[in-house]
Design brief:
heterodimer; A: 370 residues; TIM Barrel; 11 strands; B: eight-stranded parallel beta sheet; 12% strand; globular
Chain lengths: 370, 345
């Protein structure tokens, strides 16, 4: 906790060296909160017919506290978990001394709406994020929600928000109509790279459970989120998107970390065996991953022997691209005090808790303390 | 060193080869529809290996005289693409089992095979297990790793019950279910993704078998993952255990941590062994896996997966190497050292 006294125009300003960045915090809007930002026709459509996307919680009920921390219920009229900036500030930013928190509003991630509505809906999410959150506390940073199934509209929204540095990334889901490595989505990636923003892919979206089919339980669904992201990462690499958009940086969010090594071994071995299958890939898949891909920690894997987690991070070569995250206010919140194993050495711990995120998002290393 | 090769492929080179085992209706159906055995072209394109042997002579010539191989488990995947017609699927499965018995098993005491069943209809799968499952040369029921519903689902438990009544285990083999998006994230555009995707799908099946309580209901059941890799197991189990601690009440029939069921009940073949080349990392991985006790040797003839197995065997001591090459499979399938004297447990 280094405090520095700085004089600026006579008035003393206390500054603090940044030590802790939380890269996955969920502000959650109710429909009425967003409706106020919609046009009259879109608002009427929402009120009279609702949205088309099936809600995954209806067939995989969250088996614990509706998927939320019990104590994160604001108890204020019209509010739900994650909708009250004051409660979040008290329970997260102040409680743990978090210097920056990156918001990921998931309300548009399961987006199978008409393009007109999808564009308005995501615009509303960003406007709400800006007015209710980013303007509320200087420690907060936002991510740009986009109607990802309609890339041209998504690009327009990125362009609209790019001038505001508080929006530090573009937010996409981990499941979409096509695999995320598909050229369909490349215009979004190109725009993000052009504006210097990473693309954060967050677990979720509308998951269609292709492959083994629909599981029965939230337990399978939730562990399966990591498996879906593995598959998406294979798609991103094999489809040539990192060759096509060389400046692209992606953040795989809330999908686990420790599987990254095994996937690289597998992709590399397969790449060697069948080079003429994917002529676009000039380099080993692991090289693209180690250059373009960041991971957030929560829900971090917990082996019985904690040193094996450190091994897994080293094996995957992602120590410099691993970002701490709490996932507040969800039930499986990882505490900054406990999530990283004690056997992890101090420099790796500091990189994960702070340095890697400052670097990726270009955040100031000191911040003013009120 | 003696070996049991747990995955060698055989396949009829045309449906006509199965005609002696099919009714007049299906012979006409196949002829008039022009249905061809395509060797699972999406799964095994020419770029990744030769065609599976279609006769005993070809098998003997290409595989059986390999040094040290005492037993071979044959897997015929032809039925993995039997369209969506459940009646056709059941008929083809029966025909394949009869063909495998006649063409291969009857001619060599070192041969064993997976029993193939309808992958669409559990009822038909049970009937086929009842029909041929007493033949002790069949050691396990073979299912494709891709499915419409994860295999652990209660709708499939009758298949496992029928298998266990006859001492059969269950195996999930890579691929299957052409025509639906193969990976959890959708359709693929490269073979690379499709190939590696089998490992993603296998992870989903592991979650399913454990979460559905299959091993509480069938405590002697073993599930063998064939051609699905295994390096992904430790991180999956770390996360599975962690999540289970949070939401265990959703699956109250589990009396132990998920990882304990997996280590006891799953086995995985060594092809592909996509592993780090750095011996330090390889030793770490072996420690994360709690040793090589879940692994059984497979050549996966005629498919190529690189040289990972050699690197793995290099890091193992004599006893561990023997467990991979021989004892784990011998125990799993009840095979004794001399083919003539072996019998299923």
């Amino acid at each position: 906790m280094s405090h520095v006294e700085v004089r600026s125009g006579g008035a003393p300003v206390t500054k603090r060296g940044v030590e802790l960045v939380d890269c996955d915090v969920h502000a959650q809007a109710t429909e009425p909160m967003l409706a106020q930002y919609l046009s009259a026709p879109a608002r009427r459509l929402l009120e009279r017919y609702g949205r088309r996307t099936p809600r995954v919680t209806e067939w995989y009920p969250r088996a614990r506290n509706a998927g939320m921390r019990v104590d994160a219920w604001p108890g204020k009229p019209g509010h739900i978990w994650g909708s009250d900036p004051e409660l979040m500030r008290a329970q997260l930013l102040d409680e743990f001394g978090i210097d920056y928190a990156v918001l990921e509003v998931l309300s548009g991630q399961d987006c199978y709406d008409h393009p007109d509505f999808a564009a308005e809906w995501n615009h509303a999410i960003n406007q709400w994020q800006l007015e209710e959150w980013l303007s509320f506390d200087p420690r907060l940073r936002g991510t740009i929600a986009v109607p990802h199934e309609y890339p041209a509209l998504a690009v327009a929204e990125i362009e609209r928000r790019a001038g505001d540095e508080r929006f530090v990334a573009v937010l996409l889901p981990a499941s979409a109509a096509e695999q995320l490595g598909s050229p369909k989505y490349w215009p979004i990636y190109e725009a993000a790279a052009a504006y210097g923003r990473p693309v954060a892919f967050h677990t979720g979206g509308y998951v269609d459970h292709r492959g083994p089919g629909y599981p029965s339980y939230y337990l399978e669904y939730h562990v399966g989120n990591g498996i879906v992201m593995q598959s998406q990462l294979a798609s991103m690499v094999a489809g040539g998107m990192f060759e096509a958009v060389p400046g692209l940086r992606v953040v795989l969010t809330e999908c686990g970390v420790a599987w990254a090594a095994a996937l690289q071994w597998s992709l590399d071995a397969a790449w060697e065996l069948m080079r003429d299958d994917h002529p676009r890939l000039e380099r080993r898949p692991s090289e693209y991953i180690r250059e373009h891909v960041w991971f957030t920690t929560q829900p971090i894997e917990e082996p019985d022997d904690p040193k094996q987690l450190v091994w897994a991070i080293e094996q995957a070569g992602i120590g410099e691209r691993l970002l701490f995250a709490t996932d507040y206010p969800h039930w499986d919140f990882d505490s900054p005090k406990q999530a990283l194993p004690r056997v992890m050495d101090a420099s790796l711990r500091r990189a994960i808790l702070c340095e890697n995120a400052l670097e990726l998002y270009g955040l100031p290393r000191e911040r003013a303390v009120p | 060193m003696d070996a049991i090769d747990c995955d060698v492929h055989c396949a009829p080179d045309s449906y006509e080869a199965l005609f002696p085992h099919l009714s007049e209706y299906w012979r006409q159906y196949i002829t008039e529809a022009g249905i061809r055995v395509n060797g699972l072209a999406h799964a095994y394109p020419r770029g990744v290996g030769a065609t599976a042997p279609s006769t005993y002579e070809a098998l003997a010539d290409r595989v059986l005289d390999r040094r040290g191989v005492r037993f071979v488990i044959l897997n015929c995947l032809t039925g993995f693409e039997t369209h969506r017609n459940a009646y056709f699927g059941a008929a083809v499965a029966s025909a394949i089992n009869d063909w495998v018995r006649e063409e291969f098993l009857a001619r060599d005491e070192g041969l064993r095979a997976s029993l193939v069943v309808s992958t669409i209809s559990p009822e038909d799968a049970v009937a086929e297990i009842e029909r041929v499952g007493e033949d002790r040369r069949f050691v396990q029921v073979l299912l494709p790793v891709r499915s419409d519903l994860p295999w652990g689902h209660k709708n499939n438990h009758a298949v496992f019950a029928a298998a266990r009544e006859r001492g059969l285990q269950v195996a999930l083999h890579a691929w299957g279910r052409a025509g639906k998006a193969p990976t959890p994230s959708g359709f693929t555009t490269t073979y690379l993704e499709d190939y590696v995707g089998n490992q993603s799908i296998a992870q989903g099946q592991v979650l399913s078998f454990v979460s559905e309580g299959v091993f509480e209901r069938f405590p002697d059941l073993r599930v063998v993952l064939i051609e699905c890799g295994f390096a992904w197991l430790p991180p999956l189990l770390w996360r599975f255990d962690k999540d289970w601690k949070g939401v265990w009440r959703e699956v109250p029939w589990l009396g132990r941590r998920p990882s304990e069921y997996v280590r006891e009940h799953f086995r995985a073949t060594t092809a592909p062994a996509h592993l780090p080349r750095d011996p330090v990392l390889l030793d770490q991985l072996l420690e994360m896996l709690d040793g090589p006790g879940m692994l059984t040797y497979a050549s996966d003839y005629p498919h190529e997966h690189g040289d990972g197995l050699a690197g793995l065997l290099d890091r193992l001591g004599e006893e561990q190497r023997r467990s991979v090459m021989w004892s784990t499979a011998a125990e799993l399938y009840g095979l004794a050292g001399n083919p003539a004297a072996s019998s299923r447990a």
